[in-house]
Design brief:
By secondary structure, the chain is an alpha/beta fold. The chain has one domain (about 5-190, about 220-230): NADP-dependent oxidoreductase domain (TIM Barrel, Alpha-Beta Barrel), CATH 3.20.20. The protein is about 40% helix and about 15% strand. The chain contains ten helices and ten strands. The strands form two sheets. The protein has an eight-stranded parallel sheet. A two-stranded antiparallel ribbon has the order 1-2. Strand 8, helix 6 (about 170-175) and strand 9 (about 180-185) form a beta-alpha-beta unit. Helix 4 crosses helix 5 (about 140-150). Bound molecules: nicotinamide-adenine-dinucleotide. Nicotinamide-adenine-dinucleotide binds near residues 194 and 238. Belongs to the aldo/keto reductase family. InterPro entries: AKR, Aldo/ket_reductase_CS, NAD(P)_OxRdtase_dom_sf, NADP_OxRdtase_dom. Keywords: NADP, Oxidoreductase. This is Oxidoreductase.
């Protein structure tokens, strides 16, 4: 499994992980167990997903040493003013003594508490209870303010990113600031994207499924990527992306699919607490 260096001393993140948004609480343990058995070593959950207990049971019951599995969770919007307490609650639900990455889930600019949350997260990081800290759904504006007011650069920004929403401005900003780009809904939620005719052509050429072509594109761009599926065959399919390389012409062909199409909320206006 390929890993990338975070800007936090010595911490590496497996480039491909398993995301569990919308995995029901009573299915999470089984789904994560299947993913770990298939070779995933990075699990992406959140307090808001309501399935941290199942994720934790699977990680603890896997027989894998704790340091071999990278676990991410996220601080929910209504908890920006009580980040440490909310983090302790997440750890208790996971049944773990630390997470590898703790993210602010959304900036919620209208609420204006993300700088306060970030300061609390720095303390959690310094205490060693999160090996790295970062953000999700931040824009150039909200990231700039966070860095200017605290002097601490997030290790990663997890944003919606797929061939129909390529986020070139954000990726360039991240690269200029030493922040990794992590792609959520990397498969475009399995909706129209996977039946795009351009992907069918590449699928035929490489003998790989459209989902595998898209995941390979992410890896070659340097994105961390966290596809979700609860179907064991697809969980295995989605990790089968380390045995081929898209040539530059085909990377460009996928690059040409961008249409700036968001599937999820706009970070500037998402206010659900
Ligand atoms: P995704 O792009 O990973 O798509 C998942 C869907 O695609 C599945 O439900 C299934 O219908 C389909 N699919 C999966 N594998 C397939 C395959 N091999 N062939 C055909 N169809 C396939 O979408 P997602 O779940 O929205 O995003 C992935 C992860 O990103 C989430 O589970 C979560 O961890 C994270 N996420 C984070 C945020 C955030 O705000 N930070 C928001 C959304 C998602």
């Amino acid at each position: 499994m390929n890993s990338l260096m975070l800007n936090t001393d010595g911490v590496q993140i497996p480039q491909l992980g398993y995301g569990v948004w919308q995995v029901p609480a009573d299915e999470a343990e089984q789904a994560v167990t299947t993913a770990l058995q298939a070779g995933y070593r990075h699990i992406d959950t959140a307090a808001a997903y309501g399935n941290e207990e199942g994720v934790g049971r699977a990680v603890r019951g896997s027989g894998l040493p704790r340091e071999k599995v990278f676990v991410t969770t996220k601080l929910w919007n209504g908890d920006h003013g009580r980040a440490e307490a909310a983090f302790d609650e997440s750890l208790a639900r996971l049944g773990l003594d630390h997470v590898d990455l703790f993210l602010i889930h959304w900036p919620v600019p209208k609420q204006d508490k993300y700088v306060q949350a970030w300061k609390a997260m720095e303390k959690i990081y310094r205490d060693g209870r999160a090996k790295a800290i970062g953000v999700s759904n931040f824009t150039v504006e909200t990231l700039t303010r966070l860095m200017d007011e605290t002097g601490i650069t997030p290790s990663i920004n997890q944003i919606e990113l797929h061939p129909y929403l390529q986020q070139r401005e954000m990726r360039a900003f991240h690269e200029a600031n030493g922040i990794l780009t992590e792609a959520w809904s990397p498969l475009g939620q399995g909706k129209g994207l996977l039946s795009d005719p351009a992907l069918a052509v590449l699928s035929e050429k490489y003998g790989k499924t459209p989902a595998q072509i898209v995941l390979r594109w992410h890896l070659q761009l340097g994105n961390v990527v966290i596809p979700k599926s609860v179907t064991p065959a697809r969980i295995k399919e989605n990790i089968g992306v380390f045995d081929f390389i898209l040539d530059s012409e085909d990377m460009s062909a996928i690059g040409a699919l961008n249409k700036g199409q968001r599937l999820g909320p706009d970070p500037d206006t998402f206010n659900v607490a």
